[in-house]
Design a protein that fits this description.
Layout lengths: L1 H35 L9 E2 L8 E7 L4 H11 L5 E4 L8 H9 L3 E4 L13 H18 L6 E2 L8 H9 L3 E3 L3 E2 L8 H11 L5 E5 L3 H16 L10
Parallel strand pairs: 1-6, 2-3, 2-8, 3-4, 5-6, 7-8
The structure holds zinc ion (ZN).
Zinc ion (ZN) binds next to strand 2.
């Protein structure tokens, strides 16, 4: 009898280990997925949409001294306002361009100081310093810029949630991605956006990408044709 119990115990031990392993991997995968999926609003609440009948174009990773002025020219031509999330370390040297973004009626927010790909692994203190410094750079040029922030790569976690709260910022998400940092074929990108964008969407684009410029004009024309407004306002 004892031998039988020992034998069953030995047989069950590796299974139990396996269960623990599966459980641990499952938990890690779940939190990893939640960390990358900002729209899930798991670690922090982000403003998810603009008003009904409106489409908000948002541009991350600028200012770019070459591309941003061209984006601004297209927006101005169509009397459209958008939202620009600036990387703090790019502010210095682009002060006049940032003032132009503001003067032409667009909203501005910050997008961290460093935009480091490893930011999701930092502790609360380092994360808070980077986010605070990024926003301070923006406020140096536009003191009335407000408190909008977008997490780089859409990565969120408890440290990032803590830092955003500590800095008094409001996180802004998106509902449609242009994938313009990955897709390099403007025609496909434009078709995909035409198919997916609808009223109240916030569209994520990058004013650092030359091919984004080539689709911006036809995208705006198409959305206006559908009687959608394109204004820098949040819900
Ligand atoms: Zn970014």
């Amino acid at each position: 009898m004892i031998a039988l119990v020992v034998a069953v115990g030995i047989l069950l031990t590796p299974i139990s280990d396996l269960y623990v392993l599966v459980l641990v991997v499952g938990v890690l995968v779940f939190f990893g997925a939640m960390s990358l999926w900002m729209g899930a609003q798991f670690f922090l609440n982000s403003i998810p949409r603009t008003s009904a009948g409106n489409v908000l174009l948002s541009f991350d990773d600028g200012p770019d001294p070459v591309n941003t002025p061209l984006v601004l020219d297209i927006l101005k031509k169509h009397n459209v306002t958008a939202l620009f999330f600036l990387i703090g370390k790019k502010v210095k040297g682009n002060e006049a361009l940032i003032s132009r973004i503001h003067e032409e009626g667009h909203l501005l927010g910050s997008h961290s100081f460093s935009h480091a790909p490893t930011m999701g692994f930092w502790n609360r203190e380092r994360t808070t310093t980077d986010i605070a410094e990024g926003h301070a750079e923006l406020l140096k040029i536009i003191p009335q810029a407000g408190n909008l922030y977008r997490p780089p790569f859409g990565v969120t976690n408890p440290a990032i949630a803590y830092a955003i709260k500590k800095c008094g910022l409001r996180s802004v998400g998106w509902t449609v991605r242009s994938f313009d940092t990955i897709r390099k074929e403007p025609a496909k990108m434009l078709n995909s956006l035409k198919r997916s964008v609808k009223g109240s969407d916030i569209v994520l684009m990058h004013d650092t990408q030359p091919h984004t410029l080539s689709i911006l004009d036809p995208l705006i024309v198409e959305l206006k044709k559908r009687k959608l407004t394109l204004k820098a306002e949040l819900n």
